[in-house]
Amino acid sequence: MTEYTVEFVGTGETIEVADTETVLSSCIEAGIAQEYSCRVGMCLACSAEIVEGEVTQPAARGLTDEEAEGYALTCMARPQSDLKLRRGKYPPSIEDEEATAAESGGDSGGADGAAADDD
């Protein structure tokens, strides 16, 4: 088992994470407030931009292969080197969906948005 240093850019937070542990589990253990939800690599709530370093995250099904090169789902990501991560950064595909929803009037759910206007 090898331990790597994971630094969260802009926060001053640094933790040690074994290559057999996920970044998220180490954050929780260290009391770092890393956002998460599903913990199975699908929801992208725990997404972080990889500024420097490498991870393995074979079960990160919420990311395309291309996105997985630049982003880590901390619930799945295990370090393969020292890391610098920027929390709260989402893959471009997610950012594009949010921008499209905002341009079209907000709610992408359709009926839910219309019902809210009737109240």
Automatic annotation (TrEMBL):
Q: Tell me which CDD domains the record gives.
A: fer2 (cd00207)
GO molecular function terms noted in the UniProt entry: 2 iron, 2 sulfur cluster binding; metal ion binding
SUPFAM superfamilies given in the database record: 2Fe-2S ferredoxin-like
Question: Would I find Iron among this entry's keywords?
Answer: yes
The protein's matches in Pfam families, at most eight in alphabetical order, are given as: Fer2
Transmembrane region(s): none
Q: Which domain of life is it from?
A: Archaea
Tell me the ranges covered by the 2Fe-2S ferredoxin-type domain, including all copies: 4-91
The cofactor required is: [2Fe-2S] cluster
Which protein family is it in? Belongs to the 2Fe2S plant-type ferredoxin family.
Q: What is this protein called?
A: 2Fe-2S iron-sulfur cluster-binding protein
**Originating species:** Halorubrum rutilum
